[in-house]
Amino acid sequence: MAENQLNGQQVLYLPEGANRILGRDAQRTNIAVGIAVATAIKSALGPKGMDKMLVSDLGDITITNDGATILEEMNVEHPVAKIMVDIAKTQDKEVGDGTTSVVVIAGELLRGAGDLLEQGVHPTTVIKGYKMAAEKASSILREKARKVDAADEAILQKIAMVSMGSKNVGDDQVKAYISKLIIKAVKQVMDKDAKGKIVIDHDLIKIEKKAGGTVGDTALINGVLIDKEVAHPGMPKSIKNAKIALLDVALEIEKTETDAKIEITSPEQMQSFLQQEEKMLKNMVDKIVKSKANVVVTQKGIDDVAQHYLAKAGILAVRRVKKSDMEKLTKAAGGKIVTSLDDLSQDDLGFAGLVEERKVSGEQMVFVEDCKNPKSVTLFIRGGTQQVVDEGERMVTDVIGAISSVIEDGEYVLGGGSIEVDLATALRNYSNNVGGREQLAIQKFADALEVIPKTLSESAGMDAIDTLVQLRSRHRTKDGSNTGVDIFKNAIGDMNKLGVYEPLRIKEQAIYSASEAAEIILRIDDMISSRSKPSGGAGAGGMPGGMGGEMD
Ligand code: ADP
Ligand code: MG
Fold first, then answer.
1. Does 100 qualify as catalytic in the annotation?
2. 267 and 196: one domain?
3. What is the residue range of 435's domain?
């Protein structure tokens, strides 16, 4: 129990059941947790990395190689483990790829820090050294980076292939095909901001997925794929040169919330009441017909009677479409979302070469495609099973992230561990010019980055230490700086010749996030948990064993 001595009297200031670990014990525990998380996902790194199968408490199965996904599904509870998960998520958000790397590097930074703490180096010295190293690494990265722009299809294609490399979805031919689709999609939605800088909003690339067919059936739709069916069987299923009314209007008679009663006493009254309703609905449809629209897409519902009139007018209608899809439709097909039918005019209509309902794996979907220069497109992911399309989606989002960051930044580096050995070599040189114990931390930072080539060679069944020694000596030579792990030949090789290219931003973000996480974790020397211990011992994960265990 937390207590202090005050004039010889005990003062308690934490609630009954609270746990606390202090000083070195806290650091030791936290470092161990960080390393454990990194170790758990390490085997997933690289094209020869293994998949993990995760089963949720509801029995849902996820099979993946994606660092961020593995960590998220692992449901970790220890606060330090959560920090590790957060950096993977940040990496995912900022870049979309490199999530395994960032966690593995952070784990290694913690391991190095642990060694230094054992030798009596103060945590703040380690933190300072790590900060210096991260900054130096970032500036070396920028020096080493190579230029690329959106027109360099061949380089973009290689970056896409490397990003896909680790996902076990489809063969190389299929991957090459999908990477072409993604590059096309990204270029289609890219835009310039006020300063003329290229910006790519990932939300403009809609990802739809449906189990069935093969991964090779994945397609790029120049428009929006709506997971809904045409509202009425009497409507056309396919319309060429579609003029689309985009509505946020219910084609229904509003039922008021008030308790008004309508008293109908004769069949004639009933008749005329219904006729009145029908007339109102017909009126609504007439306004749509007048606008010359031949397709209606609405966020709200469509009454049966209105559906009937629309069908009679030869209009294809889709109802209850998601707001986000409506917005994408305006970007893809043009046009405006109209909130009152009285305002609907020809100018508000969107255009698509084809709107068509098709049956996909037994379900109807509406394709709004062949839009003219659409600013929003859809990637429709297919694959044999739900697990495959799910992993396919993760693969596609990784590549979208990689390709857009490289187009936005215009810079890439060499992967396969080669850039990491470069950085490590440069950091060791730099550390010699840094006096004080920070030097030791900078050297540990260099060691930590080399976990990437080490792990890659391990995954290929090579001897990690031998490989690292060879890589280091190659990198000390004048033209050896392209050398990395040639995973498929089980040897070291020229990453430039092999085309193992990665976006600069992946590496930069990974280095910053990993060192920041290590710093946050190292700064903690007092862990207080006011959560009472779960009954039945050191619960799975909580402040696991260590938290209470080391205290009492
Ligand atoms: P992350 O989640 O960090 O992106 P990946 O499993 O995608 O992890 O692995 C990325 C690592 O694999 C990078 O270091 C990258 O350079 C390396 N890599 C990818 N493809 C190859 C390849 N063909 N040869 C060598 N290394 C590769
Ligand atoms: Mg990757």
1. yes
2. no
3. 3-147+414-546
CB 503 within 8 A of CB 159: yes
Residue 108 CB–ligand 1 contact under 6 Å? no
Check if 385 is active-site: no
Same domain, 393 and 468: no
Alpha-carbon 123 to chain mean position: 33
Catalytic one of 66, 303, 325, 422? 66
Alpha carbon nearest to ligand 1 atom 5, residue: 46
Lowest mean pLDDT among 72-76, 136-140, 210-214, 439-443: 72-76
Q: Which atom of ligand 1 is nearest to 165's Cα?
A: 20
The mean per-residue pLDDT over the stretch 201-223 comes to 93
139-180 pLDDT tens trace: 999 999 999 999 999 999 999 999 998 788 888 899 999 999
551 found inside a domain: no
Residue 293 DSSP SS3: coil
Question: What's the rounded Cα separation, in Å, for the pair 445 and 105?
Answer: 9
Q: Are 492 and 484 in contact (CB under 8 A)?
A: yes
**Over the chain, what is the mean pLDDT?**
89
For the question of residue 99 being annotated catalytic, the response is: yes
- The reported pLDDT for the residue numbered 169 is 84
Q: Are residues 358 and 460 in the same domain?
A: no
